[in-house]
Structures are given as structure tokens and as C-alpha cells.
Automatic annotation (TrEMBL):
Signal peptide: none annotated. Pfam families: Glyco_transf_4, Glycos_transf_1. This is Glycosyltransferase family 4 protein. Residues 16-188 form the Glycosyltransferase subfamily 4-like N-terminal domain. CDD domains: GT4_PimA-like. InterPro entries: Glyco_trans_1, Glyco_trans_4-like_N. Residues 200-354 form the Glycosyl transferase family domain.
Length: 382
């Protein structure tokens, strides 16, 4: 018999992001296995209050969009109470909370406790949220500790999308019960790889033997955008063999990226998923020099497309890049460390090839939605 899952995610499609992607894919896999899924989210971009997305029933609370939409807070108006009354009438086998940080999460935990339903909270972060203002970041940190203190009184079971997320939970005196890994739909990616997609090398006049570095994701300061661009500019200034940096995504640092646009540094803006796969297939190296990361979907997609991965110790990507032979895991995202990692990867094609193969095989064995959903279903059964 299929189970009934109620998944709370503060943000969901059509809003794009890591938590949204996680919720969407795990919901699809659960439905494919004969389960029912309802996603309770916030209406961050004026979407319908009720919607069906590929069999996923979606209900959206009205909300205020604080911190440029990064922190939605529910409005207690008639639409909120309408959804609240609907939920009171429902019976679910489990409430899954993505993620710990939001007021939305406390509502979810209280709802589950009042209904006598098992709830679990999945951690997606590895550091406090930053708005790059010391005073506001301090206030945010105090809030997060107070928020988590309340949440722990209601929800007892915590997991992470990576071991790094579980380690971060210890900062709040939370002992995680396990990992529900972030993952990719490898079957879908393989189908897209086999198709003739957008040709970025031809479009930007890049020779077949030139090394292409890709970045895909939100253009945020914490992703290491400044350091990555500076490292590539320094490399091209000091080396005869030039490398290309293609950046796919949008975000707060788009203006900075555009100011550094050149023949070798190319901002692509937001791309469709199939175009992202085409870009990664045509790239040699994927670089994600984040200072804060749960477990990057972009890195998983890059591994699925056989890119050599350069990343930092922060977050879960090092659980994919499991050793020196898999890729480069830097101690931090300084320009010097990025420069050295790029230089080594560009000079040693065999190093890149071995890392690409090892990461792809590790991804296939451990980081697919089938594996993650197996573990989630096991939790429900237990």
C-alpha cells in the first residue's frame, strides 16, 4: 500500500533553488512508487494557491518575502486559514520538513505533533544565513538559535542532505539520525546527454582543445564568484594557454560578473535544464568555490556530465569528491588556491580523466533519487 507524505518546503516551484529541487525530485520518485504527496509551501512569486504539478498536490500559504525572497514568512489571512483548515482534516503517514531555518518549519512540526503524525526535519545548510552585514548577521544568528530551540521541542528526528549538514546540526546540539542525500535524476541526464543540444563552444568560438571551466548556480558572494573570476583572470594573464570560464545562473552578483565579461569570461544568464547539461558536457572542469553549501546539486550534475570538480571543504561536495584522485578539494576559496587547482587540472589531462570517471561512478552508486527515496521509505516503515 502506498503511503501519504506531507512535505513542508518554505519555497517550491516555480521558485528555483536547492531545497525546491530536492522537494520536487523526491516527490516525483515517491509518486512513481505509488505514494501520494502534498507539498505545503509559501506563495513567493504570485503563483496559484492550489496547483497540481506532475501529480504533486501543491498548497501555497500567502507570505511576506523578506531578504529578497530568501526568507518567506506566512501571512495569517483568509487563504492561510483555508489551507490550515484543510490540513486539519487530513491524515498523513509522515510530515517531512525542508528545512530547519524557517517559521514555516515550526508550523509544520506543531501541525504534525497536534495530529500525532511522525515528523522529520532535513537540514540543508552548513552555516548561518549571511546578508554580508556583521550586525544583521549577528542578529540572524541569534534568531536562528532561538528558532531552533523552539523547533527541537516539537520535532525530535533530524537528518541532513549530506554528512556536512549533519555536522552543522551539532552546532545547535542536534544529533542527526542519518543522511538523506541530495541527488540527481541520472536517467534523465543520460537521455539529455545523448541529444544534440546547444553548442556553446561553437556559439562562443571556443576551440575543441581549449579548456572550459563551468560554473552553474546562483551568482552569490558566498558561492565564491569574486574569487573564481579573479583566479581565472590571473591565470589567463600569466599563462600562454588560456582557459574559458562560462557562468550559468543569475543572482545578486550578476552586475559584477557582467563587469568582468570578456572573450574568456562569459556570463550566460539563467539557462534551461537541458542547456545546463549541454554546457556541462562541453566543459572540462566544474568549479564551485563556496564558503557555505549543503550539498550542491550543480556539482552532482557536473559529475553526471563527467566534469573534473574543483570545490572547497565547506559543505557536502567533498563527500562526492572523496579523495585527491576524484578531484580537487581546497581548504578555502582563496584566489591562490583556486589558481593552483585550475593550473594543476589544466596541465594534467590524465588527472582530469581519472577524476571524472571516479566521480561519475560514485554518483551512480550513491547519489540518485532512487537511493535517497529508498532511505526515506525505510524511515516511514520503521
Amino acid at each position: 500500500m502506498g503511503k501519504k507524505y506531507c512535505i513542508f518546503a518554505a519555497q517550491f516551484l516555480p521558485h528555483m533553488g536547492g531545497i525546491e529541487n530536492y522537494t520536487y525530485n523526491i516527490s516525483k520518485e515517491l509518486i512513481r512508487r505509488g505514494n501520494q504527496v502534498v507539498v505545503i509551501t509559501n506563495n513567493t512569486i504570485d503563483s496559484p494557491i492550489h496547483e497540481n504539478i506532475e501529480g504533486i498536490k501543491v498548497l501555497r500559504f500567502p507570505c511576506y518575502n523578506f531578504i529578497n525572497g530568501r526568507f518567506p514568512v506566512m501571512k495569517l489571512n483568509k487563504d492561510f486559514w483555508k489551507i490550515h483548515r484543510y490540513l486539519k482534516r487530513q491524515e498523513y503517514d509522515i510530515v517531512v520538513i525542508n528545512a530547519r531555518f524557517y517559521l514555516h518549519s515550526i508550523y509544520a512540526a506543531v501541525y504534525a505533533k497536534c495530529k500525532g503524525i511522525k515528523s522529520i526535519c532535513i537540514e540543508h545548510g552548513t552555516s548561518h544565513l549571511s546578508v554580508h552585514n556583521k550586525c544583521l548577521d549577528f542578529i540572524g544568528g541569534v534568531y536562528e538559535h532561538m528558532h531552533t530551540f523552539v523547533l527541537k521541542r516539537v520535532c525530535r528526528d533530524y537528518y541532513g542532505v549530506s554528512e556536512a549538514c549533519c555536522a552543522w546540526s551539532k552546532h545547535f546540539h542536534i544529533t542527526s539520525k542519518g543522511v538523506l542525500y541530495n541527488a540527481v535524476d541520472l536517467e534523465k541526464i543520460e537521455k539529455l546527454k545523448a541529444q544534440a543540444g546547444r553548442d556553446f563552444r561553437t556559439e562562443y568560438k571556443i576551440k575543441d582543445d581549449a579548456v572550459v571551466i563551468a560554473f552553474t548556480g546562483r551568482l552569490l558572494k558566498e558561492k565564491g564568484i569574486y574569487e573564481l573570476i579573479e583566479a581565472v583572470e590571473r591565470y589567463n594573464h600569466t599563462q600562454n594557454e588560456k582557459v574559458y570560464l562560462l557562468l550559468a545562473g543569475e543572482g545578486e552578483e550578476m552586475d559584477y560578473v557582467k563587469r568582468h565579461q570578456s572573450e574568456y569570461i562569459v556570463p550566460l544568464g539563467r539557462l534551461k535544464f537541458e542547456d545546463i547539461i549541454s554546457l556541462l558536457v562541453q566543459s572540462d572542469i566544474f568549479c564551485l568555490p563556496s564558503v557555505s553549501e549543503g550539498f550542491s546539486t550543480s556539482a552532482l550534475e557536473a559529475a553526471a556530465c563527467s566534469c573534473y570538480i574543483i570545490t572547497t571543504e565547506r559543505g557536502g561536495t567533498k563527500e562526492l569528491v572523496a579523495g585527491e584522485e576524484y578531484g580537487a578539494v581546497m581548504p578555502d576559496n582563496s584566489v591562490e588556491h583556486i589558481y593552483r587547482a585550475v593550473d594543476r587540472a589544466v596541465r594534467d589531462a590524465e588527472l582530469r580523466k581519472k577524476g571524472q570517471e571516479l566521480c561519475y561512478n560514485r554518483l551512480k552508486d550513491k547519489f540518485t533519487w532512487q537511493h535517497t527515496t529508498d532511505n526515506l521509505e525505510r524511515i516511514v516503515q520503521e
